[in-house]
Amino acid sequence: MFNPSEPSAARARIAVAGATGRVGSALISKLAAEPIELVALTRRSDAERLPSGVALATVDFDARSTLENALRGANRLFLAHGTSPRQVANEIALIDAAVAVGVSHIVKLSVLGPPSRLHPFDWHMQIEAHLATCDIGFTVLRPSSFVDILARAGAPIANDTWGGAAGDGLVNLIDTRDVADSAFAALLDDAHVTSQRAYHLTGPTAVSMPGIADELSRLLGRTVTYQHRSPAEQREKLLASGLTEFVADLLLGLDRAFYESTLAETTTTVRELTGHAPRPVTDWLGDNISLFRK
């Protein structure tokens, strides 16, 4: 576990790619309280969404020089990218730029799960494989599915139409704040700068969608049910709701992983890295119960 009160000359400058994402925004808020220089890499102007004192560097993934200029002088890089068909090319471009300008350590946000052809699992595998060939220290964080994916179920639960193709499968959902806390510890860890490590991050216990429905029933004081659907039925529902085929297929891939319980693993890594236990799903549901009210 890293103690942020310990002084370190190596903590001069940290670059954050994905600073306004779910994990990145929580991470950069924690880093902003540390005596370090912070630069957020962005493809657009996100200054209004960042803490004061965070420098902004605009990058163009099709122009290698902008990536190198943004990273020049940085000691560490947090690497996260929104899920998209360009994820592999863009993350590899940032890795190569970091190596070229002498970044010491990369903390890459990846995903938990076995080898798979499903997106984005396969994309992260490709990026990890490239990172493993580079002469640079790195920490790969492989979290299970984020608990706030349940926010998508807010309106369906309120309208009594929640369902999917996850069946009774188990998934160990993790709070994004715990992922950010783990990334914070890895970025400020001076004992393993040249090490190449990977960590599996999970919540404290695996849950099922029907189990979450039971907990919501308790919190809301009314019966919540999870309607079991075939993948074809769920895909039709997702497309009818206005989602693109790309997003619908991503969500169906998650349902398949949940159904097969491939993300049900429980680890103690969050506690070992951060010093605190991971937050349970029940905490997130309680904090966000207004999303599910009629």
Care to describe what's here?
With 294 residues, the chain is of the alpha/beta class. It has a domain of 173 residues: NAD(P)-binding Rossmann-like Domain (Rossmann fold, 3-Layer(aba) Sandwich). Helices cover 38% and strands 14% of the residues. It has a 7-stranded parallel β-sheet with strand order 3-2-1-4-5-6-8, sandwiched between helices. The chain has a two-stranded parallel sheet with strand order 7-9.
What is the structure about, briefly put?
With 294 residues, the chain is an alpha/beta fold. It has helices spanning 22-31, 64-71, 87-101, 121-131, 154-158, 176-187, 209-220, 231-240, 245-259, 269-274, 281-287; strands at 13-17, 37-42, 55-58, 76-79, 105-109, 137-143, 163-164, 196-201, 227-228.
What structural keywords apply?
NmrA-like; Rossmann fold; disordered N terminus; single chain; alpha/beta; 294 residues; seven-stranded parallel beta sheet; Ergot_Alk_Oxidoreductase; NAD(P)-bd_dom_sf; two-stranded parallel sheet
Helix content: 25-40%
Instruction: Enumerate the strands of the largest sheet in spatial order, edge to edge or round the barrel.
Output: 3-2-1-4-5-6-8
| CATH superfamily placement of the domain at 13-143 and 175-202 and 265-278 | NAD(P)-binding Rossmann-like Domain
Tally the beta strands. 9
Unreliable residue runs: 1-11
Q: Major beta sheet, specifics?
A: 7 strands, parallel
CATH architecture of the domain at 13-143 and 175-202 and 265-278: 3-Layer(aba) Sandwich
Proportion of strand residues: 5-15%
- Output the structural class: alpha/beta
Overall geometric form:
globular
- The total count of helices amounts to 11
Query: Overall mean pLDDT score?
Result: 91
Span between N and C termini?
Answer: 43 Å
Q: So what's the oligomer here?
A: single chain
What's the Cα radius of gyration? Answer: 20 Å
What is the highest CATH level, the class of the domain at 13-143 and 175-202 and 265-278?
Alpha Beta
The SSE string, one letter per element, is EHEEHEHEHEHEHEHEHHHH
CATH topology of the domain at 13-143 and 175-202 and 265-278: Rossmann fold
Protein name: SDR family oxidoreductase
InterPro entries: Ergot_Alk_Oxidoreductase, NAD(P)-bd_dom_sf, NmrA-like
Domain NmrA-like: 12-230
